[in-house]
Each structure stands twice: as C-alpha cells, then as structure tokens.
C-alpha cells in the first residue's frame, strides 16, 4: 500500500477520533441507567424505552445529516453537532418525566449523528481519501468506534464512582466539545478523482436499485446482531452462572477483537473485494453462533465467542461503505450511507427489543440466537451476486 498523503491521514485520524467520541458516549449511557432511575423514580423500563426511542432517532436522522454535509460541508455540520451534543447531554440532568427524557435523548441522538455519524464520516473519507487507500482508512475509522467504547466507558464509570453521576454527566457533555477542533480537519478541499466506473448517481436513482437495498438490508442484519450482543449478552452470561465482572470483561474482549478485525478487513478488501469479504464475515457470524449454541457454556468458550464475534462486530462497515461508493459514486456518499445506517438502526431496535420479549415469553435467548444465525446466512447470500472483479476495491498502482 502506498503511503497516505498528509491531508488524508489527518482526515482519517480526525474521523476515527470523532467515531471514538460519539460511539464511546453512546455506549456509556447504560452506566447512567441506575443513577437516573434512583434520581427520577421513572423505572428502568421507562428509561430503557426512552433510550430505545433515541436509538431510532439516531438512525432516522442520519440521511438528513448526510444530506446536510453533502450540501453545506462536513465541517459546519460536525461543529454544530458537537455544540448541540454538549448542550443536550447536559440537559439530561433536567429531565424529570418519561416524555422529557425521551425528548432529550432524541436531541442527544440527532446531535450525536451530526457530530460524528457513520454516514457523515465515511462520506468525507470517500470524497477526500484516494480510492487506493479508502479501504484501510474506513477500517481505521471503524476501529475508532470500539476504541472509544474501551476508553470512555471505564473512564465514565470511574467518574461516577468517585464524583457522582451528575458530575460524570457534565464531564461527558464537556468531552463532546472536543469535536470542535477535530472538525477543522474536514474543511473543504478538492475531492480526489473518482475511479473509472465510479461516476456519481443521483440519490433517488440509487434508492430505486435493488442492489442498494440488498446492501442496506444486510447491514440491518448487522444492526440486529450488534444490539442483541451489547444489550443482552450480559444477561446470557449471567444465565450461564458467570459474574457481572466477567460480563464487563467479555464486552472489553469484544471491543479489542473488533479493532483488530476492522483494520484487518480494511487491508483484505483491496485483494479479495468488498462483496466476498462481507459474505465471509456473515458466514463466520452464523458459524460462531451455531458453535456457541452447541458447545458447553464454559468461560473459555465465552471468551472465544467474544473474540470470534468481535472480529466482525463493526468490520462489516468498511466493505459496506465500499460497495456504496463503488456502485453509486462518492459525491452523495454521506446521504446514501445515512440511509444504510437508518436500516441498521431499525435492525438494532429489533435486536434489542425482541431479545427482551422472547426471553420474557420463553425464559431463554435460544430463539433469538437461531434467528441471528439464519439472518446472517441471508445477509451472506445477499452479497453473492457481487462476487465479480468489478466489486473489488481499487488497489494502489
């Protein structure tokens, strides 16, 4: 791989840090559930529903945030998003009712989407990073999300333990302001030349293509898997007789494996192509789930499952973005990835919600595991038609 030019490297680093900031903030909100419940008396069910509504708002806002970035520039959108995210995060302290909390969390979600959503960041990468280096750049940005979860989550918990949840919430709000200096890397630059056959298409034309919706639906399956793992794996581990500390360590192993998997996928795409890599990732997920159901629930098996699933946890994002860029061009990349992310969040809502519904009805998570394995096979099959030379990521000359 040829060296990345300095402006592309700065952009990639800034995008990875923004991804770490927004994903770390989102993943650490669960640490505030118990303190919020104690302070407001709303009940965990009501607070969880408000948070789920926020997840939907995150997904629904992404196409519009991407369109705004395509039209007005990513720097302006990120700067405004960082300011709004800081203000709305602090406003959580003032929410005293279910409706008020849901409204504030929707504002947090929309602001977070503007400050550093997948579509916005990967759209900028696609437009400003040469095609030969785009795969590894998206892999680095994707890995940034897990790095943020690993760093911000423990730091938030430590702050809650030593200074209280109110101070921790205000500290989280202040942390959002780091998006302002990072936004400078997204100043308007001349886009890189697009590869041959990478001509831009209008958004409405892309939305009429079955190929686009195949890519989006497969990423919706990814959202189903990710949200189910993050939301319900601690309960699965508890049902296996393991401690809460082991569940926290399991999530940490998941994140570390994802960092390695995201970077590795970015390096493999130029050689094998985006569609074959996605097929392999989804087949691996299905196989991992089947093995987890068959093997005994020992600590060693659980750790191995975390490594296996973590390797593809967010590693599907770089090849998914690559398929959109190759087929529909990069000039409207932020908008189109925003639509794909909206489908992802619908899948995420289903995974989080159905996990609780099925467990309450059956006393077991097994039906959801089986559904997840089957959906992974469907997602893999959706990418089989893309196994051709034209689906490959351009390699360095």
Describe the structure.
The chain has 397 residues and is mainly alpha-helical. It is 79% helix and 0% strand. α3 packs parallel to α5, α7 packs antiparallel against α15 and α11 packs antiparallel against α15. The chain starts with 5 loop residues before the first helix and ends in a 15-residue tail after the last helix. 54% of the residues are buried. The C terminus is likely disordered.
Summarize the structure.
The chain has helices at 6-28, 33-40, 44-72, 74-91, 98-116, 118-128, 131-163, 165-175, 179-182, 203-207, 210-239, 244-272, 274-294, 299-310, 317-328, 333-362, 366-382.
Average pLDDT figure? 81
Largest sheet: none
Q: What would you call the shape?
A: globular
The number of domains is 2
Helix content: over 70%
What name goes with the CATH superfamily of the largest domain? MFS general substrate transporter like domains
In CATH terms, what is the architecture of the largest domain? Up-down Bundle
**Backbone CA Rg:** 20 Å
Number of strands: 0
SSE-based structural type? mainly alpha
Report the sheet-strand fraction.
under 5%
Which sequence of SSEs, written as H and E, runs from N to C?
Answer: HHHHHHHHHHHHHHHHH
Low-confidence stretches: 193-199, 389-397
CATH topology of the largest domain: Growth Hormone, Chain: A
CATH class of the largest domain: Mainly Alpha
Number of helices: 17
**What is the end-to-end distance?**
9 Å
List keywords for this structure.
397 residues; mainly alpha; Growth Hormone, Chain: A; globular
């Amino acid at each position: 791989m040829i060296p990345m030019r300095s402006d592309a490297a700065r952009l990639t680093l800034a995008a990875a840090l923004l991804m770490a900031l927004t994903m770390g903030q989102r993943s650490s909100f669960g640490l505030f559930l118990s303190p919020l419940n104690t302070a407001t008396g709303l009940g965990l069910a009501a607070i969880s529903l408000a948070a789920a509504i926020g997840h939907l708002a995150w997904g629904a806002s992404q196409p519009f945030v991407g369109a705004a970035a395509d039209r007005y520039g990513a720097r302006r959108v990120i700067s405004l998003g960082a300011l709004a995210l800081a203000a709305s995060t602090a406003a959580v302290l003032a929410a005293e009712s279910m409706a008020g909390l849901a409204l504030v969390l929707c504002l947090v979600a929309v602001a977070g989407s503007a400050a550093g959503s997948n579509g916005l960041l990967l759209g900028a990468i696609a437009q400003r990073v040469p095609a030969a280096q785009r795969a590894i750049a998206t892999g680095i940005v994707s890995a940034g999300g897990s790095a943020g979860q690993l760093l911000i989550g423990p730091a938030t918990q430590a702050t809650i333990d030593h200074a209280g949840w109110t101070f921790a919430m205000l500290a989280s709000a202040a942390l959002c302001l780091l998006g302002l200096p990072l936004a400078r890397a997204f100043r308007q630059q001349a886009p890189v030349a697009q590869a041959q056959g990478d001509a831009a298409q209008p958004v409405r034309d892309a939305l009429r293509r079955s190929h686009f919706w195949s890519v989006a639906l497969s990423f919706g399956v990814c959202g189903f898997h990710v949200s189910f793992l993050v939301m319900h794996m601690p309960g699965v581990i508890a049902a296996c007789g393991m401690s809460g500390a082991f569940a926290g360590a399991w999530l940490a192993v998941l994140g570390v494996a994802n960092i390695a998997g995201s970077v590795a996928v970015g390096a493999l795409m130029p050689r094998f192509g985006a569609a074959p890599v996605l097929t392999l990732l989804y087949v691996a997920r299905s196989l991992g789930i089947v093995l987890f159901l068959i093997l005994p629930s020992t600590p060693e098996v659980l750790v191995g499952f975390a490594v296996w699933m973590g390797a593809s946890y967010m590693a599907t994002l770089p090849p998914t973005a690559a398929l959109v860029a190759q087929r529909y061009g990069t000039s409207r990349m932020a908008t189109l990835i925003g639509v794909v992310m909206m489908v992802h969040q619908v899948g995420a809502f289903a995974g989080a919600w159905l996990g609780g519904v099925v467990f309450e009805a059956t006393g077991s998570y097994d039906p959801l595991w089986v559904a997840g394995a089957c959906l992974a096979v469907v997602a893999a099959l959706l990418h089989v038609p893309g196994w051709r030379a034209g689906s490959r990521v351009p390699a360095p000359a």
